[in-house]
Amino acid sequence: MHPKPSFLVGLIGSGIAASRTPPMHEAAADAAGIRYLYKKIDLTELKLGAEALPELLMAAKRMGFDGLNVTHPCKQAIIPLLDELSPDAEALGAVNTVVIRNGRMTGHNTDWFGFAENFRRNMQGAPLGRVVQFGAGGAGAAVAFALMKLGVRELTIVDVDLAKAQSLVNSLSPRFAEGRLRAGQDVAAYVAAADGIVNATPIGMDKYPGTPLPTDLLRPDLWVAEIVYFPLETALLRTARSRGCRTVDGGGMAIFQGTEAFRLFTDISPDPDVFFATFASLGG
């Protein structure tokens, strides 16, 4: 018998009304036979910003929450308010999962795990010699960390803001062997020498249409990974598939960061198929 009969968790962020995370977690809990209530704490609806975090965390502690997921604009702002960080959250300087136990709050980052697990399951045997990643924002940091953990030999990070790409390289480099990470902007040359590319920018979302690189650079022996999942079939993936590239969409990253957060909250590994089915039923 599991020691805890029920769990109360929440999601703090702006504009999360349509988030698929709460129903995915609740469906997985039903399948596992545990009681689990997942509340949305939408800063937009509450007319609050990240400055409300201390008050919200105090309330969550007082009301007996077992954990929180955290999204934009709170992933970095929450760090100084926590008691402890996991090594991954510390490496990435971002938290998306907070476990509350015995009055202590520990910050974790499951975004990188989400990308890595999705890649492992869908891209077995993909060559990991040279990879080009587009985007050096918060998601980009998690993806770069995941790619290094997956064993990429040489990762080039491209961002419209070269200083941002260089800053990400500088922060991650000390944790990995020298010379494996670099920043740059010569997209055509990097892609020509690459085994695969990853889009870690918002380009491809409905509100940011387009592709992060010129599609004439795509060729059949290149694999293409995406983190955008709304829509699941971005312009980049559609073109890549039509060119014969091996591809992986962003849905799995969203799902596996969720399964790992669920495990951290409950100590129970959920059934990923339940997450997938729920995700798809919500218009995935």
UniProtKB/TrEMBL annotation:
Domain of life: Bacteria
Binding site for shikimate: 19-21, 71, 96, 111, 229, 257
Enzyme superclass (EC): oxidoreductase
Pathway: Metabolic intermediate biosynthesis; chorismate biosynthesis; chorismate from D-erythrose 4-phosphate and phosphoenolpyruvate: step 4/7; Aromatic compound metabolism; 3,4-dihydroxybenzoate biosynthesis; 3-dehydroquinate from D-quinate (NAD(+) route)
Signal peptide (UniProt feature, chain positions): none
Pfam hit, one: Shikimate_dh_N
GO biological process, one term: amino acid biosynthetic process
Residues of the active site: 75 (proton acceptor)
Reactions performed catalytically: shikimate + NADP(+) = 3-dehydroshikimate + NADPH + H(+)
GO CC, alphabetical: cytosol
CDD domains: NAD_bind_Shikimate_DH
Keyword terms of this UniProt record: Amino-acid biosynthesis, Aromatic amino acid biosynthesis, NADP, Oxidoreductase
EC number, UniProt record: 1.1.1.25
Domain Shikimate dehydrogenase substrate binding N-terminal: 11-98
Entry keyword annotation includes NADP: yes
Molecular function terms from GO: NADP binding; shikimate 3-dehydrogenase (NADP+) activity
Residues reported to bind NADP(+): 135-139, 227, 250
Subunit: Homodimer.
Family, as annotated: Belongs to the shikimate dehydrogenase family.
Biological role stated in the UniProt entry: Involved in the biosynthesis of the chorismate, which leads to the biosynthesis of aromatic amino acids. Catalyzes the reversible NADPH linked reduction of 3-dehydroshikimate (DHSA) to yield shikimate (SA).
HAMAP family named among the record's database cross-references: Shikimate_DH_AroE
Protein name: Shikimate dehydrogenase (NADP(+))
Organism placement in taxonomy: Bacteria, Pseudomonadati, Pseudomonadota, Alphaproteobacteria, Hyphomicrobiales
Gene that this polypeptide is encoded by: aroE
